[in-house]
Amino acid sequence: MNRLDALKYFVIAAEVLSFKNTAARFSVSPQVITRMIAELEADLGEPLFKRNTRSITLTDFGEAFLPKAVRFLQEEEQLFGASKNAEDELRGTVRITLPPYPYFDCILYRLLTALEPYPQINIEWRTDFEILKTVDDQIDIGIRISKTPEEHWIAKKICVMQELIVASPKLIAQTGLPKDMFELAQKFPVGNIFNPNSGKAWDWIIGDLPIPLNNPSVVTTDLTSLLQAALAGRIFAPITRQDCQCYLDSGELIVVFDNHETEIWSFYLYRPYQTITPKRVLLVYELLEKILADIKF
């Protein structure tokens, strides 16, 4: 048994609580993880995990052993890290997820340009409003629209965005103005982005209160199309100020509610917390952090 590999498998398995997902992280079969953990347990003379058909959990011994294993791996990295071949550590795939915003197109170009000295790093660039799962979808880095960062993120706030409810003067002349968001959602032509997780339009959100759109006039998978539907006089729609300011200035769109009825969202650059993060992921994260700091949203 390779004890070093066994410890690495154990630490990640303790983090994700799944032998299958641990195997995916290391690109080996689940049987390899199961066998190595079993051999490690036999070597220690104690079970590290409680197992059932659906999940694994750490035993009391496993809980006590985990920080020792982490500390050992960190010391091993410090001791031998300098002598490892840098090319070997800066190769492989980095998976990045982000929403399909038009002004994010330049980010990939600048990232790939910055990665020219590292031709062995491959980028998997997933632009979608679907919320991908860190473990199941093997996400290394993400950009996410959120009110607050999640607990398991190592996150940096990129910018704050104000989401306005807007409509064209032509549509407002036809329908009049709603008294509040609830009347707007129920009785007026509205639209929003498609939620792939539910198969319906995303709810509108005011504070922490979701407002469902029961019969939206337009549902689309990208913000550019949603903006065009509002400009065409078809719908009332939530559009970020950055995207619609020029149309507000020209009078082609009008803000329907005052600031009390608008939402403030944040863009976060994040990577999931991991006990051991590959150097290629750290490199790409640092490059994205610099790129995003230079972009004016």
Question: How is this structure best described in words?
Answer:
The chain is of the alpha+beta class and 297 residues long. It has two domains: 3-84, Winged helix-like DNA-binding domain superfamily/Winged helix DNA-binding domain (Arc Repressor Mutant, subunit A, Orthogonal Bundle), CATH 1.10.10.10; 85-297, D-Maltodextrin-Binding Protein, domain 2 (3-Layer(aba) Sandwich). The protein has helices spanning 3-16, 19-26, 30-44, 60-80, 86-89, 105-114, 169-175, 181-187, 223-231, 241-250, 279-294; strands at 49-51, 56-58, 92-98, 121-127, 141-146, 153-167, 191-195, 200-201, 204-206, 209-211, 218-220, 237-240, 254-255, 263-272. Strands 3, 4, 5, 6, 12, 13 and 14 form a seven-stranded mixed beta sheet that branches. It has a three-stranded mixed beta sheet with strand order 8-7-11, with helices on one face. A two-stranded antiparallel sheet has the order 1-2. A hairpin with a 4-residue loop joins strand 7 (191-195) and strand 8. It is elongated and about 75 Å long. The mean pLDDT is 87. InterPro entries: LysR-type_TF_proteobact-type, LysR_HTH_N, LysR_subst-bd, WH-like_DNA-bd_sf, WH_DNA-bd_sf. It comes from Gilliamella apicola.
